[in-house]
Amino acid sequence: MARSFENVVMGKGGIRLAVALYGEKPRMKIEFTDYVTIEEMLVAIQNVSVKGGSLKTGSALAFAADAMSRLDMLREDAAKVVVLVTDGKSSDSLEDEARVLQDVGVTVFAVGIKDADKNELNKIASEPTAEHVLYVEDFHLLHNVAPKLSRRLCFAASEPPRPMKQTAQAEKIIGPRDLYVSEHSHSSLRLTWMPATGRVTGYRVRLHPLLPSGQLVSEDQRQIVVDGDKCTVLITGLKPNTKYVFTVRAVYGDSLGESAAVKGKTTPVPPVTNFRVIEEGLFSLKVAWTPPLGKLEGYKIYIPRANRPGMTYEQVLRGDVSSHVLDNLQEDREYSISIYTVYPQGPSQPVAAVGRTCPS
């Protein structure tokens, strides 16, 4: 397919190509702006490796629509084309996602191989499906349909862009707005927005974690469906101390409305509070603390060595205790004691207290 454009200029004023892989989760392997010549692009495609696994084709189509919508380098008169290649039946729903992709003016080709579901191919491809669906019985037969696909692909790329569906614009639909994040915890965030106008049947909330550099982590993206009469959702199962981008779109039966986006950050895993020494003995110290909220796996309490790495004392405690006796200590000696909570998501930062054993 890429070789179809060997004699065409790439980049600004020409064509741009990208490659995404999908299975359980879609991910961009070659971005639209990675290469400036078709020769570089062909080498990069040869180096792409594909792994087997479950097929979430609906998620892949939504990923493609999102990628297309973020392309600010596209000219208004540039045709937008997606070629989806699949060898199996999707494990998630795809009709709405396919419709959204076509509603934003994208021409969609569906290439099925071996165990691909022909009914799904027809739902994915643009009309007329006879022109946009191709199928072969095995991978080694792909070369038989390559010339036909190349001709149709070149024709689609040279045509004016398909018009975007005007239904939402005609009704002057206003999407969700005033989106904000509240109820911050280490594993959840609450998302709230002003409702979209029109006959909303639901909302689709998509979330992407961000690296410290600000780059999106496509592999960990998730989608949550919210009822149309709701305008808030508590999103759980998040990573501690992590930034996220949330995108909300209203669902209108057979189409999606405008999107709204906001960033939010989870808190670090909470430590104990009020950590203190409550009893001092000759050879022991008793400490107590106020447990943090949430489901704990336990605590780890320790006394670090003063002069070299390691521990002089270490003890793992259950999550339902709030005090502990450190014994076998030396008399008349000051100790710095540390404790941290252990959650399923990871440990907290340690909290320290100082105590001194009694002299004899």
Can you walk me through this structure?
This protein has 7 helices and 20 strands. Strands 15, 16, 18, 19 and 20 form a 5-stranded antiparallel beta sheet that branches. Helix 2 packs parallel to helix 3 (95-103). The chain is an alpha+beta fold and 360 residues long. A hairpin with a 6-residue loop joins strand 15 and strand 16 (311-317). The longest helix is centred in the middle third of the chain and has 17 residues, at 142-158.
What is the secondary structure topology, with strand pairs?
Blueprint: E1 19-21, E2 27-30, H1 38-46, H2 57-69, E3 80-86, H3 95-103, E4 106-113, H4 118-124, H5 129-132, E5 133-136, H6 142-158, H7 167-170, E6 177-182, E7 189-194, E8 202-210, E9 222-227, E10 232-235, E11 243-252, E12 255-265, E13 273-280, E14 285-290, E15 298-304, E16 311-317, E17 323-326, E18 334-343, E19 346-347, E20 351-356
Parallel strand pairs: 3-4, 4-5
Antiparallel strand pairs: 1-2, 6-7, 7-10, 8-9, 8-11, 11-12, 13-14, 14-17, 15-16, 15-18, 18-19, 18-20
